[in-house]
């Protein structure tokens, strides 16, 4: 599994999702096509050159408008398709910070209590209210992965982590490897990221327990989410969940066709 971060200046958690074997052991997820990252608002000329060298032609921004407007992706000079696909559908971090009264009205109208920014609540809301957005993200990655794609949010661990976990599950990667890929984020964000993200979040009007929500990636939380999906939807729970929420039925096969590499082929490439 490719758990090491890629040294892209201005980022802390830029990684290739490839490298994991499938549960069957007959293939693995190929590298060099699908990448995940934290925010890319502070890219430099050097890091843009590095992204160009990776062959990335599509950038998918999973953040809400309140995050994007304060910290837009720094893609100047890159020939990429830039797709804004807010997983929280601009509800969690709206363009204008809501007052307590406005948040209460929004909760009554939508059934979402947005005042609770704990990790468990964030994931619960993501799965219960934004399945259509997660399904759309999977479709976009499936359509873009042949030409190289990176998807990202602010920390590259919750929205990005869920999309990555779903992609790996659709590719047949085992639970242990999925959780390992998710949890490694905590190590990558343990350096200067917290100070940086607290400043960025403050600029965007975002408050809360940032030490936890910005850097923690407890594997038991992701395991709980995946277990709950399997319990409700069956053995192929992630695929069934995404299909129910509007994923293109062709997307899993597109991902497998583009990203799975046989062991024999990998050996031939190394030789």
From TrEMBL:
Gene Ontology molecular functions: phosphoprotein phosphatase activity
Secretion signal, residue range per the UniProt entry: none
**Per its record, how is this protein called by name?**
Tyrosine-protein phosphatase
**Pfam families in UniProt:** Y_phosphatase3
Q: Which family does it belong to?
A: Belongs to the protein-tyrosine phosphatase family.
Q: Which InterPro entries match?
A: Prot-tyrosine_phosphatase-like, Tyr/Ser_Pase_IphP-type, Tyr_Pase_AS
Q: Organism, per UniProt?
A: Brevibacterium aurantiacum
């Amino acid at each position: 599994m490719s758990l090491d971060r890629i040294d892209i200046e201005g980022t802390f958690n830029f990684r290739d999702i490839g490298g994991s074997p499938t549960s069957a052991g007959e293939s693995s997820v190929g590298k060099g096509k699908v990448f995940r990252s934290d925010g890319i608002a502070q890219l430099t000329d050097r890091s843009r050159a590095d992204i160009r060298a990776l062959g990335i032609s599509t950038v998918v921004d999973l953040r809400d408008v309140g995050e994007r407007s304060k910290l837009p992706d720094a893609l100047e000079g890159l020939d990429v398709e830039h797709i804004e696909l807010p997983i929280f559908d601009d509800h969690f971090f709206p363009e204008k910070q809501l007052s307590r009264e406005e948040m209460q009205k929004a909760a009554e109208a939508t059934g979402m209590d947005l005042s609770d920014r704990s990790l468990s609540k964030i994931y619960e809301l993501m799965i219960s209210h934004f399945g259509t957005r997660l399904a759309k993200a999977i479709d976009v990655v499936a359509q873009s992965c042949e030409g190289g794609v990176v998807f990202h949010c602010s920390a590259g661990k919750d929205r990005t982590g869920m999309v990555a976990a779903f992609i790996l599950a659709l590719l047949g990667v085992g639970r242990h490897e999925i959780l390992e890929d998710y949890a490694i984020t905590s190590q990558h964000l343990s350096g200067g990221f917290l100070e940086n993200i607290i400043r960025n979040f403050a600029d965007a009007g975002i408050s809360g327990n940032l030490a936890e929500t910005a850097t923690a990636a407890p594997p038991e939380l992701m395991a709980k989410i995946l277990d709950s999906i399997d319990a409700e939807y069956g053995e192929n729970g992630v695929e069934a969940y995404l299909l129910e929420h509007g994923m293109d039925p062709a997307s899993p096969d597109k991902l497998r066709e583009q990203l799975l590499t046989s062991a024999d082929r990998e050996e031939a490439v190394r030789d």
